[in-house]
Amino acid sequence: xxxxxxxxxxxxxxxxxxxxxxxxxxxxxxxxxxxxxxxxxxxxxxxxxxxxxxxxxxxxxxxxxxxxxxxxxxxxxxxxxxxxxxxxxxxxxxxxxxxxxxxxxxxxxxxxxxxxxxxxxxxxxxxxxxxxxxxxxxxxxxxxxxxxxxxxxxxxxxxxxxxxxxxxxxxxxxxxxxxxxxxxxxxxxxxxxxxxxxxx
Length: 200
Fold this sequence. Notes:
This protein is α/β, with parallel strands linked by helices and 200 residues long. Helices cover 16% and strands 26% of the residues.
């Protein structure tokens, strides 16, 4: 995958003077799509390489400025996200750890697609393959360390995969590692805009 031409970013300790008619500068942080599933599998070259039962399918994308800290945060968030009801039927009470479910992680650089210009997606916002693979594998190992390694499966990095799933609900969430925006940020921002607010 081609990921050259990574957009430039900047940081400043002073308030930014922004043109209200122009988008704010963005830092593309690690992001993931979580899907609550009854089952999911990955097939490569007509061979099933990974499969899980009840649990979550995680499509994870690495940004060009992500670090191990982002991967640590994402791994913890994936495992703690409350996607299931409790015994009383109250929704959003239990995580995949709580239900002792399984996790299937798949690298998905296309989450960083930009569609602002024309109809062809632009993937320059994703990390370069070498960096993405290293940090994705670190993220995967972190998920296994924080949970039960035998319950965490993965796809094949950079392979052409067929991902099958039975979405339970359906329940699908997008999460990222961008810090929460403070109330004052709308008028006196002190850092770049979180990825969740970047225009697509």
